[in-house]
Amino acid sequence: MIEKYKKNPIIRPSDVKPSREGYKVVGALNPGAILYRDEVILLIRVAERCEQINGYVRTPLYRFENGKSYPDIMEFSRDDPEVHLKDTRGVIYKGKGYLTSISHIRLARSKDGISFKVEENPFIYPVSESEKYGCEDARASLIDGRYYINFTVISEDSWATALAVTDDFQHLERKGIIFHPENKDVAIFPEKVGGKYIALHRPNNSGFGRASIWYSESPDLLHWGNHKCLIRPRDTKWESMKIGGGAPPIKTPEGWLIIYHGKGDNSVYSLFCLLLDLKEPYRVIRRAKEPLIIPTEPFETEGFFPNVVFSNGVVELNNRVYIYYGAADESIGLAITDIDTLLMSF
Hints:
Helix content is 3%, strand content 54%. It has 346 residues and is mainly β. Strands 19, 20, 21, 22 and 23 form a five-stranded antiparallel sheet that branches. The chain has a four-stranded antiparallel sheet with strand order 1-26-25-24. A four-stranded antiparallel sheet has the order 2-3-9-10, with no helix packed on it.
């Protein structure tokens, strides 16, 4: 049985303090999740917009000076003929694009996995031009006693995936970009397989097919190769547009358990289960035909981007599996189940 927590959403934008004056939090979503000591830590994507002033278009951005970065605001007069509102997510000024919102990663901590306290300051935020338009959708893996966090970075060069490592969720060591543009939805396995680090990733497909989930190997977590397309979208209403990986895999006696997302008809996002071989993770054992979770509740079907459930954070706690998911690109929901139920979903 999979139970959506009755008091969902567990975190709303109103629960998060803006990172600076003049910013407004419009999304607290898509959290990575990890157990750290006696806590569950969520790595929340916090999306912020500028508070608007009549007669002006205001957009957030980061500036980089003397080796430091800080969030700032750009203002354009609505009457300026060089200003063009691309859509709700972008502004074009003198031919150059800017986002109407920008994201960073914020930590939230909980003893029970349900009630969280969100920290006031960003944990991961743009520090270089390659991250200029934000840091999004973190995933965390505990490997050999260290916590590796990969996250999507956005810039004028599109999106890519970067890696950082921490021992205490206070200090952060950045490792740089590990999957070049355009690649995201990276999930790193929590242990080596056959002496190699393993990751799933999702390169963009602008060619003859649809975006799919790929497999890759690395000797050091920085250099990735032996890429293989693992699974492609099926011709169903749930996966008709694309698919992508979710949280780092869970090791079970039957195989590596993956919860991935599909984008289907009418841009509806849902979650599915996938099982990979323990010794040969590029080999698919089983793939669920029906979704594990679909958007049904108002906070999932109504919001910034309606009809979305998107998970990149799962933890095992008290013999249960806690699935944290972004809902409607706006808030965070929780679903609780167990390994046996997930393995029976195929």
